[in-house]
């Protein structure tokens, strides 16, 4: 009687033990691998000037608008002064064009015209006096030719003096005023550019974050465009992972996923915020088994405030969400 009862129980226990062993030997659920990252903000050098002040240290938390670093403003201030002087000169030139010629210049032009007309009359009279002397060879042909040329030159000087007087009387052309206005606008724009550049020499935090790196020290002179300060921005890090191609169709932006951080016992709830449309090269740590020869897609998983204390760079793994129906 006891044997009939023991055999079914022993058989059931053996089956459950085998099922557990088979489940333990099965494939692990697919996961996406990657690292923790923050949004990085690089503040480049606006000019090749020396670092004269550093107001923060690496690892320090900063608020938006907080001073970070200052470059030597001496050269840029000189450039600004030169640009402002050029703008003032162009302003005076434009005013002169709009006012037109002075009355004294017009009077001088009229006097020059009168003098040229007098010289022309004298040259014509001399030429006319020589012409009758040519018949009896009382005047050389060369002298007559020179007198004729002098008379023609005097007529040309009269025409030039008259044109100069007309230009002054008629005033400045509209095209010249337009050119003056354009030159003034260009000079003002150049001065404004130097003024903006001068303001950029005092680097401030564009948003709240943490100072990750200060590549240059006090007294260094960085080239234009070199990063002077690197900030890690955001309230919490995000997981940058690589989705393997067979699972790409199961993951969508907005999906809730579980993120496991290396060295932490707990998992973190995250939401997929970005999936690249183009595949990327798969890093070595994301290659596993049959997936080693497959494509991967870069994705970002946003984490909540509970992950704010996690350091950047830690390895993470993300469980794929269940397949949608």
Describe the structure.
The chain has 325 residues and is an alpha+beta fold. Among the domains are: 93 residues, Beta Barrel (Elongation Factor Tu (Ef-tu), domain 3), CATH 2.40.30; 102 residues, no CATH class. It has five helices and eleven strands. The strands form two sheets. The chain has a six-stranded antiparallel barrel with strand order 1-7-10-9-8-11. Helix 2 packs antiparallel against helix 5 and helix 3 packs antiparallel against helix 4. The N terminus is likely disordered. InterPro entries: HH_YbhG-like, UPF0194_transport.
Distance between the termini: 51 Å
- Based on CA inertia axes, which overall geometry fits? elongated
Order of helices and strands: HEEEEHHHHEEEEEEE
Sheet with the most strands, sense and barrel status: 6 strands, antiparallel, barrel
* Content-based structural category: alpha+beta
Bin the strand percentage: 15-25%
Gyration radius over CA: 44 Å
Please provide the count of β strands.
Answer: 11
């Amino acid at each position: 009687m006891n044997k009939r009862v023991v055999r079914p129980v022993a058989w059931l226990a053996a089956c459950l033990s085998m099922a557990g062993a088979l489940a333990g030997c099965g494939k692990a659920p697919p996961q996406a691998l990657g690292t923790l990252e923050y949004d990085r903000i690089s503040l480049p050098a606006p000019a090749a000037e020396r670092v004269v002040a550093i107001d923060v240290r690496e690892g320090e938390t900063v608020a938006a608008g907080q001073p970070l670093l200052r470059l030597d403003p001496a050269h840029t201030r000189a450039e600004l002064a030169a640009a402002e002087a050029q703008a003032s000169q162009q302003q005076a030139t434009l005013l002169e064009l709009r006012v037109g010629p002075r009355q004294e210049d017009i009077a001088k032009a009229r006097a020059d015209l009168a003098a040229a007309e007098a010289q022309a009359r004298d040259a014509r009279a001399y030429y006319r006096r020589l012409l009758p002397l040519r018949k009896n060879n009382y005047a050389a042909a060369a002298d007559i030719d020179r007198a004729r040329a002098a008379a023609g030159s005097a007529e040309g000087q009269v025409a030039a003096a008259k044109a100069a007087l007309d230009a002054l009387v008629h005033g400045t052309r509209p095209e010249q005023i337009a050119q003056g206005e354009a030159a003034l606008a260009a000079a003002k724009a150049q001065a404004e550019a130097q003024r903006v550049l001068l303001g950029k020499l005092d680097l401030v935090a564009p948003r709240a974050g943490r100072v990750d790196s200060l590549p240059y020290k006090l007294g260094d002179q960085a080239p234009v465009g070199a990063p002077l300060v690197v900030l890690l921005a955001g309230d919490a890090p995000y997981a940058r992972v690589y989705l393997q191609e067979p699972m790409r169709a199961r993951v969508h932006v907005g999906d809730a996923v579980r993120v496991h951080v290396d060295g932490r016992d707990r998992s973190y709830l995250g939401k997929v915020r970005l999936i690249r449309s183009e595949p990327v090269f798969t890093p070595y740590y994301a290659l596993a088994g049959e997936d080693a020869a497959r494509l991967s897609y870069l994705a970002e998983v946003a984490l909540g405030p509970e992950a704010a204390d996690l350091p950047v760079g830690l390895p993470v793994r993300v469980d794929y969400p269940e397949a949608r129906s």
